[in-house]
Amino acid sequence: MADRVREPEVSVLIPCYNAGRYIGETLESVFRQTWPNVEIVVVNDGSSDNSSDVIRRFRAANLTLVEQSNRGQTAALNACLAHAHGSYVQYLDADDLIGPDKIERQLTRLIGHPRAVASAEWGRFHLEPENTRFEPETVWRDLDPLEWLVQSLADGLGMMLPALWMIPMEIVRAVGPWNESLSLNNDAEYFTRVLLAADQVLFCAGARCYYRSGINGNLSGQKTAKAWASQLRVLELCEAYLRAREDSDRVRRCFALAWQHLAHSSYPYDCAIAEKAVACARRLHSVRIKPDGGAAFKIASRLVGWRIARRLQAASGRP
């Protein structure tokens, strides 16, 4: 660890909105990093809780707190970037965690590969990070960026949480800002651009990030017209990005599945979005899937169709 301060600086960028319950633990995971040359930029996006008080308690020279009125997560991320000085960028949600050697493992692989991005292992937890389960995925290996995206989207879903990545600032600047018109699933759109701007995705075994689930009111759980419109726009953009690179059967199949997942999740909350998603899936590929659910839902789907079954499910209070 000698003289690591002379080695590349990493900017850890954290947008924060009403995360007072979690931001302290998130910051502690950054301060525990074995790579010492780290700056931390937190943008408090108009929180109405004690987020600012928790952040200020750290009083670290390498921690910058930026206060702004509430403008949304993507605007907060762009504000983070405006204050970043590092050679590499680690994005981090205000309620997620990274393992103590996550940054070091990824930097070690990236140095000497200026056109690569580094990925990591990830797992989901609800209460205690010690209970996180890390389940290997097909993308847990070095891959061509397009191949990474296709394999990640093989079931139409995929996971691109911000904590996964370590990105050279050169690539961050090249892809431009976060799209501030997007809310739900904005990270999928942004990191698709990042990966397609890179030459390689380098997987870093042992570099771990911890994804906190089950938080009431978080962005990923929103069921609003704005959220569904954002999800639709994200899929439109990501489909265009990938098909511009490779307009193949496998790419069209991935997005046909993704459109069907959107249709199933948005119905009946936004029927217009759902029907547009169904149409988008049909124009792309013949692959078809059924919406997921419990035994009662599956029986209802067979008897009355998935749309009525989803209406009954939503009326019962099930998501």
Gist?
The chain is of the alpha/beta class. It is built from twelve helices and eight strands. The longest helix is centred in the C-terminal third of the chain and has 21 residues.
Overview of the molecule:
By secondary structure, the protein is of the alpha/beta class. It has two domains: 4-219, Spore Coat Polysaccharide Biosynthesis Protein SpsA, Chain A, CATH 3.90.550.10; 223-315, no CATH class. The chain contains twelve helices and eight strands. It has helices spanning 23-31, 51-56, 73-82, 102-110, 145-152, 169-175, 186-197, 225-245, 249-266, 271-284, 295-304, 306-315, and strands at 10-16, 38-45, 63-68, 88-91, 97-98, 116-125, 167-168, 200-212. It has a five-stranded mixed sheet, sandwiched between helices. The chain has a three-stranded mixed sheet with strand order 5-8-6. Helix 2 links the parallel strand 2 (38-45) and strand 3. Helix 8 (225-245) runs antiparallel to helix 9 (249-266) and helix 11 (295-304) crosses helix 12 (306-315). It is globular. The termini are far apart. The model is unreliable at 1-5 (pLDDT under 50).
Mean pLDDT: 94
Report the sheet-strand fraction.
15-25%
- Give a quick account of the main beta sheet: strands, pairing sense, barrel closure: 5 strands, mixed
Helix content: 40-55%
Q: What is the global morphology?
A: globular
Q: What CATH architecture of the largest domain would you give?
A: Alpha-Beta Complex
Helix segment tally: 12
CATH class of the largest domain: Alpha Beta
Number of strands: 8
Q: Give the neighbour order of strands across the main sheet.
A: 3-2-1-4-7
**CATH T-level topology of the largest domain:** Spore Coat Polysaccharide Biosynthesis Protein SpsA, Chain A
Q: Regions with pLDDT < 50 over 5+ consecutive residues? A: 1-5
- Could you spell the SSE succession in H and E letters? EHEHEHEEHEHEHHEHHHHH
- Tally of discrete structural domains: 2
Q: Kindly, what is the distance between the CA atoms of the first and last residues, rounded to a whole number of angstroms?
A: 49 Å
- According to CATH, the homologous superfamily of the largest domain is Spore Coat Polysaccharide Biosynthesis Protein SpsA, Chain A
Alpha-carbon Rg, integer = 20 Å
Structural class: alpha/beta
